[in-house]
Amino acid sequence: MLRTVLIQDLTISRGERRLFSDLSMALRAGEAVALTGRNGAGKTSLLRAVAGLLRPEAGQIVFEDLEAETARAEHLHMVGHHDGLKSSRSAWEELRFQTLWSGGSPATARQAAERLDLVRLLDLEVRRLSAGQRRRLALARLVASPRALWLLDEPMAPLDAVHRQTFGDLMAEHLVSGGMILAAVHDPLPIPTRVAEIGG
Question: Can you identify the CATH homologous superfamily of domain 1-75+148-200?
Fold first, then answer.
């Protein structure tokens, strides 16, 4: 199981603009780090670099005791601004497909739907869901096929107060079980976090 992520002297640029340089931090089992900073500071880019979707200009990201390719394929989930859901499928078809693809089962998909109050929505096409409902469907993948590292980009943004509390409880459970959370945020998360300001 992935238990430590080390970010060492990382520099990321987009086009001709350097977002940040020489960034170092460690994330260990049971910890959550909230990435803060102004819009465009590089919070999302850092998440994408950890996920392997963006190549840093310099520095490295080390998944202790695991090859980077294995860690990214088997030990992390990322939920970004775009939910990555296929709008023509039903909510159940999409949740089941993504759960099976990432190592879960129909039973764990159903359990995740129950935890995130999605059961009554599962027969609807994804295109008919509200922004908050789509976000809950995307977040259900975290629960349906557990992986150690959660990379979250403004996870609470479209959620109402009740579902923010529900997801806060799920994040706390994930940390207690030895998981890790790296989240780009503007508003504080409802769990204990260490704050890292990006571009500050």
Answer: P-loop containing nucleotide triphosphate hydrolases (3.40.50.300)
